[in-house]
Amino acid sequence: MSDMYEHLVSAEEAGQRLDKLLGEFEFLPSRSMAAKLIEKGCVHVDGDPASKRHAVRAGEQIEVFMPRREPSTLIPEQIPLDIRYEDSHLIVLSKPDDMVVHPAHGHWTGTLVHALLAHSKDLGTLAGEERPGIVHRLDKDTTGLMMVAKDDATQAALSEAIKIRAIDRRYVTLVHGYITPDSGIVDAPLGRHPKDRMRMAVTDGPSSKQAVTTFRVLERYMAGVRDDGYTLVECKLYTGRTHQIRVHMAYIDHPVVGDQMYGRNHPKADLGLTRQFLHSYKLELTHPITGEQISLRDPLPEDLASRLRALEPESMGRTEAGEEVLPVVLPPSS
Questions:
Q1: Catalytic position from the list 3, 48, 87, 139
Q2: pTM to 2 decimals?
Q3: What is the pLDDT at residue 30?
Q4: Helix 152-163 crosses helix 31-39 at what angle (to 10 degrees)?
Q5: 152 labelled catalytic
């Protein structure tokens, strides 16, 4: 079953690409969704399926067949959520560690999506049935701030804002070794590892995509008997590839402490952590519907904060960026 919308092309609209014209219709949240419907054969011009590149002509009859959303087969679960901002369009929450964002192989229950379904009956549908409202993801053991859309228009707008780098997302991570420069950039494409499909790698293969991470050093720590020192870093994402920060830091020979996939896997050198020291601490964006400026900060969870406090005697001093960031992310010990 589907809903059908009709539109008669006017003289003023003539000459536009079909997907661009459809993207301006109120019942479609974005040009990308219009393109997907065209590719699926859900858009007809004068009775025939059309190409998204079709230049419309005055008097043409456009029919758009919108597939009706099937009821979700996912069962909501009453899992507590740490919500930092919410209105009728958008949720920003702090994701805990050991939580997968959406159902996947080996994780069919207990995900963030299951918790969201119990929290809100309204969630964006553009990412598919198993990812309602999801705009971007955090790895299972990465903590911190994350956005969720409650409607399709918000979901499309946030996805586009990420694509054009209009949302400021920053992470704090502790890495192995001593990073000499106070700031830097890693511009290295990422794709699936050629031998292990569970891993990502820096590669120039045909499926690789551009990935850009910038970093600022916050604090450095002296080497010990079992390690070569540590550097606390703020990372800013300019793209959102899977495992991006973890792979990029390992690529420059400074793997994230505690990273079981890309790290050094020495329990003592990893400060006893069995998850990556990676936390999404800062999120700044313009609300896509209301225009409100949203600026949120999330301190480190206690398991990560306690490791930093234990390293304080080895500190080689904070940088200027560290003086700015650390008072925000490092809560006082309880």
A1: 139
A2: 0.80
A3: 62
A4: 100
A5: no
